Structures are given as C-alpha cells and as structure tokens.
Amino acid sequence: MKIIIGLATCAGLFSASVFAQSSLTTEQRFVLLEQRLQEAEKRADRAEAEIAQLKDVPDAAHENKIEASSQNSPPQLALKNNDAELKFYGDVEFNLDAASRTGSLTSLKTSSDKNWAPGSGERWDINGRILLGFDGIQHADNGKYAGFSVQPLADMRGKMNLDDAAFFFGQQENWLVKVGRFEAYDMFPLNQDTFIEYSGNTANDLYSDGYGYIYMMKEARGRSNSGGNLLFSQTLDNWYFELNTLVEDGSQLYVDRRYHGSELDNQKNVVYVRPVIAWRQGSYSVAAAMETNLVNNAYGYNDAAGNWHDQSGRTGYGLTMSWNTLKDDPLDGVVVNLNTAYMDAEEEKDFSAGINALWHRVELGYIYAHNNINDFNISGVSSECESDCAILAPGKYDIHTFHTSWQLPNIMDMRNFNIYLGAYASWLDSSAEQQGDNQARYGARLRFKYLF
C-alpha cells in the first residue's frame, strides 16, 4: 500500500510541475519534484501507521493497557503489559446481627467486631468492613514468577486493620515460596457459612478461657497479629504438598493470655510447623495435616509454690474430605465437606468433627466438639466469667452447633452484589460437677456482600 500511495502522489506532482511551472529550468524542476516526493512519502508512512492502528496490529499489544474484568471473571481493575500485571479489587461486607445472648458457649467468634465483649443480654448489632486489595505479579519466559499481595481493611468502628501482606515467588504449577501474613491451607472448611466463622486473625484469640473450644486446625494456619509465615509448597500431578511455618508470640492464642484460670507468661516465641498433604481427582479431594510447636517452655505459668508449668506443648492433627461438582455444574452442583481435627495439649484434649453441604445456594452444616479438661483453676477466673462462662471446672464437655446460610445472588441485576441470610444454634452438655451456664445460644445475620 505504501508503494501504491507513493506512485499516485508522484504522478500528480509530476503533472502539476509540467503544466503549472513551465517557466522553471529543468534542474530547478527536478529539485522541486524531489522535495515533494519526500513529503509525499512521509504522508504515506503516517497513513499506513493509522491504518495499522485501526486494525490493532500485534505491535500494539506491547503497550500498557488498562482492562476491566470480563463478564465471567471476578470484578477487578487490572493494569497489564507483556509480562507483568497489577490488579486492584475490593470486598465490601456489612452485617445486621441478632443473637439470643452475647455470652458464648464456645470461643468460636460470631461477631466481626473484635472488641465486642461477652455479656448476659441479647445483642443487636450492625458491623462490617471494607477490604481493598492490590496484587502484583511478573512472569518470566521460563514459567517462573514473583509477586505480592496487600489487603488493607477498614471496619465500621473506625479502625484500620490488615488481612494479607505477602511476597511470593515460584514456578507455574510446580513450586511456590511465600512469606508474610496470610492463611495457609484450610483444613476445616465451613462452605458458604456466614455466622459460625472466625473474623480477623485466625492464629490469635482462638481460645477464650471459660468457654468451649472448637478446634479447627487453625492455630498454625497464619494471619497472625504477632508474627509471620513462611510457606513452601509443591504440586505433582494430582498431589499437593505444603509446609507452613509460623513464628509468633504463642500466648496470643489465648484471649487475655489466660488458660485454665491461670495467667500466662510469654518467655519466647513459638515456632509452629504445619505440613499438609492433599490429593485431588475430578470432583473429589482429601487432605491430611498436623501442626505442632517446636519450642519448649515458650510460655506457661508459675503456681502458688513457684513451680513452672509449660503450656506451650500443643500438637494437632486434621483430616478433611470434599466432594465438589459446582465447578462443572454451576446450577445443580453440590459441595460437601467432611472435617475432623484433634488437639493434644497440656491438661486438655480436644476433638472436633463437622459436616456441611451446599446445594442451590443453600448451605446446612453441623459441628460437634468434645473438650476433655483435666485441670482448671477456678480461683483465677474473673467475676464476669463466673456469671457467664460455660466451663468453670475440670470435666468433659460436648458442644453441638448447627449452622445454615442462603445466598440471594445478583441483587438489582448486579452479579457482584449478593445478600446472605445466616443462622446458627449451639448448646453444651457437661459431665462436670460444677458446670457453668449452658443455655442454648442462637442468632441470625443479614449480610450485604459487594465485590468490585
């Protein structure tokens, strides 16, 4: 096309020069013709470039582009070039809660407000948070990559928190190294649950003295507010191997640093290791894991005689199995999870088992927990706990919890705006001679979930 445009321009210029400029000498005419040919060639080059741009030639793919998410992908805004990508996204989550009593039977959190304290009255609450996410990743030609993720979190109480802050590198579908603040493999998935869940940190404030403990293999999972993670993972065909290491102040596991009526003294940081092995084939998957602290005498307490009691020796085991057909059949697919976990701790043994199922956006689940407590110092319990706590003496305690959730999708025809209706009921059976308040607890939640 460049040649054709040039020849046509030359012919026109040559004719104009012959008829309109006959008074010029031959040499002057050739000089003028050469200048006009150069100008015509430049105009032809510009025209060809404009045509190529309209056709979106491959050379234009190397320029930076801002792309919104497609119709089938999660909402996000991405800045891309040929080997790197930066994503910006958000998650808005606000809840309207109603509960029979603020006093809990278990240490399982049912409020997204971290500062909410137990009490004896009914609870009516509006709470929530807004998460902003920034993910960056750069790919190399050999399949290797490196990236980061940071997720600031603002809650309704006017405080700023942080979900994830991590750096990672590895090779696609092979190995990965990740360091920072994040959650490792979920060994006790609760499916589409909206109420019986942990909010905020999963490695801190899991055990509340005076309440039953639903152990879920989360003590070394990560996202701590007093330490960090280092994770190695490897994928081989249908197999997945993971080793997560968590270094933190281990006494932060306990609310107010109290365990069995005694105040804990932190001597040194714990070092948790959490190996996981998982296998997946089609719609089926199974995973087994353990978590244990490698540091002796990390934290504990001195009794009345001055004797030291190490409370940092904790080892847990877990197994989870899943059947998930939702990916292949979004309309009629089913998700079923079966979870079990066991904790061997100082003066306490905890066992948990749960099953949950999701079908047509409706989820139903049940969790059973058994706590066997061999020692409890009632003199170290506060007056508030004496009037409201569920566990105040050595003994065996059984905790039963039912939970349900229903998703209402595409509110106002917006695929990224959903509403969830959730509810739970929980009660405790005790073999202790002096058992606390074990009245049934129940609650309901209306959740607004908006992704952008």
Folded structure, characterized:
This protein is mainly β and 452 residues long. The chain folds into two domains: 2-58, no CATH class; 90-127 and 184-451, Beta Barrel (Porin), CATH 2.40.160. The chain is built from three helices and 23 strands. The protein has helices spanning 2-20, 26-54, 383-388, and strands at 65-68, 77-80, 84-99, 123-139, 144-155, 160-171, 175-181, 227-236, 239-248, 258-259, 262-263, 265-266, 270-281, 284-293, 299-302, 308-310, 315-324, 334-345, 348-359, 362-373, 395-408, 417-430, 441-451. The strands form three sheets. The protein has a 16-stranded antiparallel beta barrel. A hairpin with a 2-residue loop joins strand 18 and strand 19. It starts with a helix and ends with a strand. The model is unreliable at 1-11, 13-22, 54-66, 68-72 and 112-117 (pLDDT under 50).
Helix content: 10-25%
The coarse overall form would be elongated
Largest sheet, described in full? Answer: 16 strands, antiparallel, barrel
Number of domains: 2
Measure the end-to-end span. Answer: 46 Å
Number of DSSP helical runs: 3
Order of helices and strands: HHEEEEEEEEEEEEEEEEEEEEHEEE
Per DSSP E runs of 2 or more residues, the count of β-strands stands at 23
CATH fold descriptor of the largest domain: Porin
Second rung of CATH, namely the architecture of the largest domain: Beta Barrel
Secondary structure category: mainly beta
Mean pLDDT: 82
Oligomer: single chain
Strand content: over 45%
CATH class categorisation of the largest domain: Mainly Beta
Side by side, the strands of the main sheet go 3-4-5-6-7-8-9-13-14-17-18-19-20-21-22-23
Rg to the nearest angstrom? 32 Å
